[in-house]
Hints:
alpha/beta; pyruvate-formate lyase- activating enzyme; Arc Repressor Mutant, subunit A; 2 domains; 17 helices; globular
Amino acid sequence: MLDTTSTEETGVGNYFISNYPQYSFWKPELVKHVHDVLNNPAPPDPLPLGLYFHIPFCRKRCHFCYFRVYTDKKASEIRAYIDSGIKEIEKYGAMPYLKGRKPKFIYFGGGTPSYLSVSQLTDLTDRMKAVFPWDEAEEVAFECEPGTLTEKKLDQIRKLGVTRLSLGVESFDDHILEINGRAHRSKEIIRSYQYAQNIGFPQINIDLIAGMIDETEDNWIKTVKKAIELAPECVTIYQMEIPYNTTIYKEMKESGKITAPVADWPTKRRWVSDAFDLFVEAGYTITSAYTVVKDPDVKFVYRDALWGGADMLGTGVASFGHIGGVHVQNEHDIGTYLERVTNNEFPIYRAYPINDDETLIREFILQLKLGEVNLDYFKNKFNEDIARRFSNTLQLLKNDGYLTYSVNSIKLSRDGLLQIDRLIHEFFLAEHQNARYA
């Protein structure tokens, strides 16, 4: 039975659910299914296509970071990586399933995409567009670390076609930034934000993290109020988690600790709720378990397309993708990635072909994060009555005040929204219950 009363301390492991089934079920021996998809033409009315490129370079590694990043690469090594990334993209562009298709959205993630120089970014994007033109893209999203940005670089990023600039702020408190291993400081945040605002990006997002090392209620509220003062179009708020391959976990393991030196889950949820209240008071609208926006009509195309089952071509080291019903992850070591691309191979490490029922559950649990789910969508697309299939679980969650539901919709309460990543496990198929995430 689902435990809906948990108040545990923050331990080690992934909390945020970004995909289903979990990555631990993806296997190298299943990569053949990706090739089967790629070697056949897309249907006449294909799914929307997205293009993700991973840029794994950073000025320094944050203590809570679990992504594949490198802080010691020279310009020549970065050049070699860009060349390999383009070679990978060109190889995909020649495959029957992808040939001639234009992406609806493009996403540059990391790592730190803004770590690249203006000339490197220009070269990379010009060559990407030659394979997959951006002229029909509804969104080009780009992650930044504030300390890597200059006015000249931001101006060029905008001219390259970026429409959504995401600043990894996390906190405006210099002590919090320093002790958590962030490379930037508050002055760099303000300077880069003002540059971006003056240049006129259509959408600027600020990322914040609730519950970092040494965070207090007082400095958290100050950070939220500072974000409100800047008035970005979108703010994304995450609750601090400690995955296994982080510096914090390594220090915990060495000292024999099982509880992370960060706020517990009830405290983090309360702080996010307080932040939501302040943003709503300032005129923002809550649009998911993590986001508030000034204009409720503003869309995050990348997120909404993925949560609706779109194709996404993941390129670059350790990147994740979803092509023709198959989950895909690239080689996670940069040396292996470069070697395989040099050998004219797809640098795919593991995959998982997702069946119709898993597809339904994936879209359902991800769309629950939006706070409200239209059940007619699932009746029309999957011929499935969600309210009937999951009636027992939905009734339990309703009884505990986490949601309300009818035959047409599910609506989460604030309390349910704040812990949705914990609650959605109950909707997993039996074979995916209680499994390691990554």
